[in-house]
Amino acid sequence: MEDLNMDATEYRPDNRLLRxxxxxxxxxxxxxxxxxxxxxxxxxxxxxxxxxxxxxxxxIIENWINTAGTLGN
Length: 73
Fold this sequence. Notes:
The protein has helices at about 20-25, 30-40, 60-65, and strands at about 15-20, 45-50, 55. The chain is α+β, with helices and mostly antiparallel strands. A hairpin with a 2-residue loop joins strand 2 and strand 3. The radius of gyration is 12 Å and the shape is globular.
């Protein structure tokens, strides 16, 4: 299986950090569904920036949308 947590640190102008709200909007998945799939290993893990602050790289989320699609609720 493809690594869902690939290194996305290379600079790309379109590779910005997304909040959970933005991830739910882009994927169409609820917050609970995203965390359920993270725990199953079927959704990319967020990056912890500080205590209580997590973000996802937009490039990783776009790649997930293009390859995995929505997994259903």
